[in-house]
Amino acid sequence: MSPSDATSTPFAFVMNDKARILAVDDDPIQREFATVYLGTPSVMIDVAENAEAGLRLLAGNSYDIALVDIDMPGMGGIEMVRLVRASPRLKSLPIVMVTGSDDILSIDRAYEAGATSFVTKPVNWRLLNYHLRFVLRAQRASGSK
Q1: What is the C-alpha separation between 74 and 54, in angstroms, rounded?
Q2: What is the value of pTM for the model shown?
């Protein structure tokens, strides 16, 4: 494929499988970007402004995957993941941590708490779409939920 072919290729959604995503981030811009860049005709996005609101949405709804910011006022994302993993109903929910902190300690803490995956800000939203598609397909293929 030549470079000119790439620019003339029509836009296509990455996530075509039906999914419901919860995005938890205290930054309203990140929540808006999640809605705009991850939502498709087959993907529904719900957002929460903090971990407590995210836990309330998880308690009352069924999600296929969650994106959780690590650094939030009040309860942080690491504690939220620990609480989610303690719930029998949610223990297999794929959780992708999204954060500006890519130091070793943050990465280790996220995985030790039960994160499925880890991505850093600034978010490349196209790449995140592919990443989420992979995580969802792996989860579905494993039969966990």
Answers
A1: 12
A2: 0.89
